[in-house]
Amino acid sequence: MYQGKIANSPMKITDSFWKERMDIVKNQMIPYQWDALNDRLTDTEPSHAIENFRIAAGESDGEFYGMVFQDSDVAKWLEAVAYLLENEPDDKWENTADEVIDLLEKAQGADGYLNTYYTVKEPNRRWTNLRDNHELYCAGHLIEAAVAYYRATGKGKFLNIMIRYADYIDEMFGPEDHKINGYPGHQEIELSLVKLYEVTNNEKYLKLSKFFIDERGKQPHYFDMEKQSRKEGKPYWFSGGHRYSQSHLPVREQETATGHAVRAVYMYSAMADLAAYTNDSSLKETCEKLWNNVTNKQMYLTAGIGSMEYGEAFSFDYDLPNDLSYTETCASIGLIFWAKRMLELEAHHKYADVMERALYNGAISGMDLEGQKFFYVNPLEVVPQEVESRNEKKHVKPVRQKWYGCACCPPNLARLIASIHHYIYTKSNEEIFVHLYMGNETTMEIGGHQVGITQKTNYPWDGKVAIELSPEVDTTLTLALRIPGWAVTAEVKVNGEIIDFQPIMKNGYAFLSRTWKQGDTVKLNLDMPIQRVRAHPAVRHSFGKVALQRGPLVYCLEQVDHGEQLHSIYLPKDADLKAEYERDLLGGIVTLFGEAERVDESEWQDGLYGTSDPEIKPIQLKAIPYYAWCNREPGEVVVWINEKL
Amino acid sequence: MYQGKIANSPMKITDSFWKERMDIVKNQMIPYQWDALNDRLTDTEPSHAIENFRIAAGESDGEFYGMVFQDSDVAKWLEAVAYLLENEPDDKWENTADEVIDLLEKAQGADGYLNTYYTVKEPNRRWTNLRDNHELYCAGHLIEAAVAYYRATGKGKFLNIMIRYADYIDEMFGPEDHKINGYPGHQEIELSLVKLYEVTNNEKYLKLSKFFIDERGKQPHYFDMEKQSRKEGKPYWFSGGHRYSQSHLPVREQETATGHAVRAVYMYSAMADLAAYTNDSSLKETCEKLWNNVTNKQMYLTAGIGSMEYGEAFSFDYDLPNDLSYTETCASIGLIFWAKRMLELEAHHKYADVMERALYNGAISGMDLEGQKFFYVNPLEVVPQEVESRNEKKHVKPVRQKWYGCACCPPNLARLIASIHHYIYTKSNEEIFVHLYMGNETTMEIGGHQVGITQKTNYPWDGKVAIELSPEVDTTLTLALRIPGWAVTAEVKVNGEIIDFQPIMKNGYAFLSRTWKQGDTVKLNLDMPIQRVRAHPAVRHSFGKVALQRGPLVYCLEQVDHGEQLHSIYLPKDADLKAEYERDLLGGIVTLFGEAERVDESEWQDGLYGTSDPEIKPIQLKAIPYYAWCNREPGEVVVWINEKL
Description:
2 copies of one chain form a homodimer. With 645 residues, chain A is α+β, with helices and mostly antiparallel strands. Helices cover 35% and strands 20% of the residues of chain A. Chain A has helices spanning 16-37, 49-56, 71-87, 91-107, 116-121, 135-153, 157-172, 189-200, 203-215, 222-229, 261-278, 281-297, 329-345, 349-363, 384-389, 409-418, 559-562; strands at 11-13, 381-382, 425-428, 431-434, 440-446, 449-457, 464-471, 475-482, 490-494, 497-499, 505-506, 509-516, 520-526, 530-535, 545-550, 553-558, 569-572, 577-582, 589-599, 609-610, 616-625, 637-638, 641-644. A 7-stranded antiparallel β-sheet of chain A has the order 1-5-6-7-13-9-10, with no helix packed on it. The first copy, chain A, has a 6-stranded mixed barrel with strand order 15-16-21-19-17-23. Chain A is globular. The interface between A and B is large, with 54 and 54 residues.
C-alpha cells in the first residue's frame, strides 16, 4: 500500500535539461522575483509583498496592498530558495532568506498569528471569511516553506515560527464545539500540515489536516453559516456555488473533478497524503476515482487542467477547448504535486506518466527560456488577433508577461523546478522506484547501507538512460524502472546483458531485483519515435486532428515557422516525419520536420462561401516542443493539427 | 443609379411558406406580444411597456419599469399591426392599435416630446445621455410605426403625433450653435426620418437624418463632451470605445463593419437611403465598401452577423466562430433592411441573395414554428451542456424562450414578416425587378396603366416560379428576374418559349423587355440541387467542413436525428445525398438524406489520448432547414459538418 515518501537524500542534479532550468531559477527567477517582491521592477504591477510584512512588523508605515494572499508569494519564494540550498550552498540567498525570516518573526503576533492582510488591514476580523480570504492558504504556504528551509539548512527558526502559528491554528480550529468548525476556501494548509507532521512527528498536525478534509462539504455548510454571520446578502459570484472550492459535497462523495483547478489538485494532494498516513482506504479510493476522472476525461494533452476561465475551473468530461482554456501553470504544478503523492500511495506508471507530461509541457510552458517572463494561462491554440479582440479570450495573453498582479504562477514554477530532485525516486523498504529519467547523483540507505546512484541521460531528447549503482557493500534491492506509457519499445540491460523485463513488469515498472555490487550498471533504452496522438472521439475540439509527441514532449506549430493561419495546415496520414536535434534553436531542442499540406488561400476562387474545392499545396512542417513556444516571435501556436485521412 | 423605392402597391401574399408565417404573426405573435406588452404573460419577465405609457399619460400611477428603450417594443408591435392591415383588414387589431395611439397622444408632452422613460423617471434630464439612453432610437421606431400605420389605414392621427415629435426633435438637433450637435447612441431615427420624408415630402426630415449621419464620429467627439457634462468618471464599458456605436470615425471614413451589429446595419440602412435621396456618391461608396466587408468577411452562412457576445458586435475579418457568436435575430433583420435599400440604390443580385439568405435562415430561426418562442442569439453550433456549463456561452440559449427582458427580437420579427410583401419587387420607370420569389398578387402602375402581377411558386421547396402579367392595356416594360447566386442552372420561358437569358443578364437579373399583354406568362425554373458549401479558407472555425444548402436554405443536423456528439459525423466527399419533401415534418419541409460516416466512439481503444486509428462506421444523415431547428426536442445542432477528403 504505502510505498514510502520521496527520498530526501542528498541529491545533485546533473541533468543538462533540468540543471539548466535550476540555474535559471537560481540566477534569474530568484533574483528577479526578489526584486518583484520588493517592488524594484519597473513596468509591472507592484507586489508590495515584503513591504506588507514590514508594515505588519512595525518597521514601516503604510497600508496593506495587493491580493489577500500576497503573503504566499513570499512563502513560495522562500521555499524555492530552500530547495536550491538543498542542491548547493549559496550564502547570498541563504542570508537574504534569513533576513526575511527575521522579518516574519517580527510580523508574527504574540499568539502566533501571522498574516499581513488581517494584521494590517482588518485586525479584528481574523477567520471571518475563510471562504474568500486565504488566511489558511497563506499559512499553508509559509509552513511548506518553513519545512523546506529546515530540511535544507537544519536551521530551526522559521520552522519554530510556523509551529507557533500552526499550534495557534490548532487551538482555533477543530471539531470541538468551542473551536471554529470551518475549513479553508482555498485548500493548501492541509498538505502543508502533513509536511509539518513529517518533520515534527507531531500527530496533531496530521489530525488537523484530516479535520479540514473530513469537515469539508458537510451540511449545514460552513461557508453558508459564515456568510450569514457576515450578513452578506449577495449571491456567491461563482454560479456553480460551492463547487468552486470543492466543498459542494463531503470529499469522499466527490467523483468528478470540479471547480477551481488549483484548489482541487491541492486538496487531492492532501487527501492522498492522508490516505497514506492514516491508511484511509475510502480516501485512497476517492483519490483514484478523481485521478481517473481528471486524467481520463478532463486533462489536456499538455497536462494542462481547467478548461474554463470562469472560476479558473474544470468544466465537464471531454470538454477541452484548445483556445478558451485556463490551463493555469499553477494547476499543472498542482497536478504534479498530486501525482507525486499518488506515486507514494502506489507506484503506477499512470501517475508518473502524467507527472512527466505536466513537467515537460503544461508546467514549464509557463516560463520563457530565460526565466523572466511568464504565462499564467497555457492554451493549446492561440491566435493573437482573437485574444486581442474577443472578450471571452481576454485571459489568454499572446506573449509571456513580466509579472502579474496575481503572481501565483512564477514563484510556484520556481519552487517546483528547484525541487525537481524530489520527483525522481521513491524508496520503500528494499525497493527504489525510478519515476523520472534525468541526470543526478544521490545516495540512499537500504538495509542500513548507503547505496550510491548515478543516473545519466540526454532525456528528453533521447531515451537512453544509464544508472550506476554503488552500494557500500553488496546489497539486495529492487530497482524498479518506470517504462513510460508512451514507450512503444524499450530495452533493459544490466551490466550489458539484455533483460527480458516483461515477466518482471508490475504497474508499468520493471522490477530488477538482485544483489547489487559496486559499479553495476543498468541501461534503459526507450525508443522515441515521433507519435501521432489522437484525442478520444468525444473531445469535440480536437476531433479530426492529431498532435505530435516524441517521448514526453508534446509538440506545436508556430507562426514564425509557417506564417499565420496555422489552422489551414493538414498532416497527411502517411506524412514522413523526421526528428533532428538543433543545438542552436531555443536552447537546443529536437525539432520535428516533414512534408505536410496546406490549403492555398490564394487559390480560393469563391467569396466568403462557395462550392469550389480548396486547392492544396505541399509545405514543410516544423514542430517544436510546446514548452518552448513564443520564445522567438509572438504569433499563432497550435498543438492539434488537422489530419488528412 | 436610383432604382426606385419598393413598390407600395396593394399586395396580397398568397405564398404557402410566407402566408403561413404572416398568419402566425397575426394569430399568435400579435396577440401574444400584446399580452406581453400588457404584462399578462405568466412565467416571463414583465414588459410594463404599455403601463409605462399609461403612467406617462397620467392614467396610472407607478414607476417606469424596463429597459430604457421599452417604448420601442410598443412601436414595433404597432408597426407589425400596420403591415398586417396592409395585407388584409382586421377590425379588432386596428381598434386596439387606435387605442394605443390615443394613449400615445395622451403621453405626449405639450412640446411634442414622447418618451416614457424620461417623462416618468427623469423629466429634467432629456437629451443628456444620447450615447446610452435610446431616446432618439425610440422616437425612430415610433416614427416608423406611424408611417406604416398611415400608409396602411390612411389615418393621420399617429402620423401627426410623430410629426409633432419630429418637429420638436428638429428644433432641438442640428448643426446650428443653439441646437444640440449630437446624434443617437443607437441609430434608428435616421432611417425613420427618411420614411417620414417619404410620406410628408418635407425635406427637413431628410436634412435632419443627414445631419445625424454627417455629424457622427466627428472630433471633438460628442459623446465625450456629453460624458464630461454628466461628470461621468468611469471609462466606457466597451473596450472598443466608440466603435460600439460606429462613431469612432466619420461615417464616410469607415471601411469595415465594427461594433454593435444592429446599430451598424440600421445606420448603413439610413446611409443607403440618404445616398439615394441626396445623390451622395461618397455615401453610396461607403455603403458598398461596408456591404462588401460585412458580406464577404464577417457574415455567417445563415446571414447571421455579430460574431461576439461582448458588445453584440462584429469582431474582425473571417472571425466567425460557430458556437460563440451573437448572431442576433435583430441583426439579421437589420441586414435585410439594409439589403432592401442597397437594392433600391442598385439592383444587384448580391444584395437580394443576402436578403434572401437572411430571410430564410438567420432571421426566421429566431422564432419557433408556432411563433410563441424566440431565439435572440442564433449560433450555427450549439451543444447544450456547453451552454449550460460555460460562462462565455451563457448568452446562447439551448431552446427558444417565451419572452426576453430585452424583448427587441420578437416584435422585430413580427414587423419583418408582416411586411414581407415590401421585399419582393422594386419598380423604376418601366422596370419591375423581381427580387424574391413567393406567391403574391399585386398591381403596379407603369406608364399610367395598371399592370397586374400574379406570382405562383412552391419556393423554397422547389425553384419553379410562374409569373403572370395582366396589364390593363398592352404595356412595354422590363421584367427583371433575379437569377439567385446559388442557382447553377436556370430556365426562363415566356409564354412557353425558352428564352436565352444570358445576353440579357445584368447584375444577376434577366431583363425581359417587351410589350406585355394580358395573360402573358413567365416561367422561371431554378434548379435546386443539394449544394456542399465551403467557407473561405481563412475562416478557421469552419475550416475542413462543409455545409449543406439547397436553394436559399441552409441546412443543419440535429441531435434528435443523430444522437449527441454531432461533431463526430463526417460527410464523405462523394456522399450521395437526396432531397425529399416531408409533409408531416416541421410544418412540411424538404429534408436531405444520405449516407455519411461517423467515428464510432464505442470502438475507441485508448484512454483520453492514444495513437490508435478511430473506427468509422456508416450512418444515415438527415439534414433539416436551419430555421426549423429545435422544434422537436432540445439538443445539439450543427451547420458545418466535417468533410472527409
